[in-house]
Amino acid sequence: MKALIGGNILTENTEKKDKDIKIVELCRVPLEDEALAIESLLASCNIKCILQSDITRSVFPFTIDGLAEVRILVSDKDLEKSKEIISENKN
Q: pLDDT tens-digit profile of 57-75?
């Protein structure tokens, strides 16, 4: 069986591999700008990530006790490499 996703043809093997991927939390940051910078840094190293937050920033563009934190999620297979990349690029 083949599926077309984003212009790419996926076979059953690819679909099975996708089901085996576990998403884990890499870190939390207080600002969306910081999350976007980390996302860009990881993307430059071919690591995909997901940015997740519990609150809509356009309504409440600030953080109160971690309420608007952005969680950065990566594949468990990319976790260690992602941590290394972030620690190497901290200011």
A: 555 555 566 667 899 999 9
**pTM of the full predicted structure?**
0.69
Cβ count within 10 A of residue 62: 10
- DSSP classification of residue 42: H
**Cα torsion through 47, 53, 56, 57, rounded to 10:** -70
Residues of the chain with pLDDT under 50: 1-10, 12, 14
Determine the Cα–Cα distance for residues 91 and 57; give it in Å rounded to an integer: 25
Alpha helices (H) along the chain? 12-20, 32-44, 79-88
CATH class of 22-88: alpha beta
Q: Looking at this protein, which amino acid is placed at residue 65?
A: D
